Amino acid sequence: MTHRVAVRPSGVELEVLDGEDLFTAAGRLGYRWPTVCGGKGTCRTCFVQVEEGVENCSPVGPLEREGIEALRRPVDGLTRLACRLRVEGPVTVTKRGVRRRVQE
C-alpha cells in the first residue's frame, strides 16, 4: 500500500510505501531531498513542517526528538525529520529545495 505526501512549495507528490520514511521514498522516486548526513537522522537538514495530516504521521522517536529540540522547535508533531517520518495516510509538508534529480 502507498500513501500520498504532497510537498510544498515545489508541488511534488510522493507515493510513500508502508514502513518507508519520507526521505527514502523521495530518493527512490528520483528526487533530491536536502541532507548532509544522508538520512541517518544526525544533520537535521531534512526537517519538514507538517501542514496537513499530522494524524497520519508516525510517533516521534528519541533520535528525532533530540534533532527537533536541537532545531529549537517544539516537539508537537508539526516539525519532523523526513528521514524518520513514516506515514499511514495522506500528508502535506513544506520543505524548500526538493527537486527532481538531474539525469546524467
Automatic annotation (TrEMBL):
<dbReference type="Pfam" id="PF00111">
    <property type="entry name" value="Fer2"/>
</dbReference>
<feature type="domain" description="2Fe-2S ferredoxin-type">
    <location>
        <begin position="3"/>
        <end position="104"/>
    </location>
</feature>
<dbReference type="InterPro" id="IPR012675">
    <property type="entry name" value="Beta-grasp_dom_sf"/>
</dbReference>
<dbReference type="InterPro" id="IPR036010">
    <property type="entry name" value="2Fe-2S_ferredoxin-like_sf"/>
</dbReference>
<protein>
    <recommendedName>
        <fullName>2Fe-2S ferredoxin-type domain-containing protein</fullName>
    </recommendedName>
</protein>
<dbReference type="InterPro" id="IPR001041">
    <property type="entry name" value="2Fe-2S_ferredoxin-type"/>
</dbReference>
